[in-house]
Write the structure tokens for this entry.
Amino acid sequence: MNNSELKYPQWQLPYREAILEFDRNRLPDKIQKAESAVRERLQVLEQRANGQEERQALSDAISTLTILKR
């Protein structure tokens, strides 16, 4: 999947970079960047009535990042 195929690229790009990182030394930084992007997007969506599909995708991303941190 290339960047133009991402449905929510502003947070999915750093998220994808984190989940595809195999270097344990670089992983914490990638996770932090992805978590920041997810949190920022959640704040934007809090002010909107729609966006349930993206909220679910964000929730799934948070769960995956939590597992990666272990």
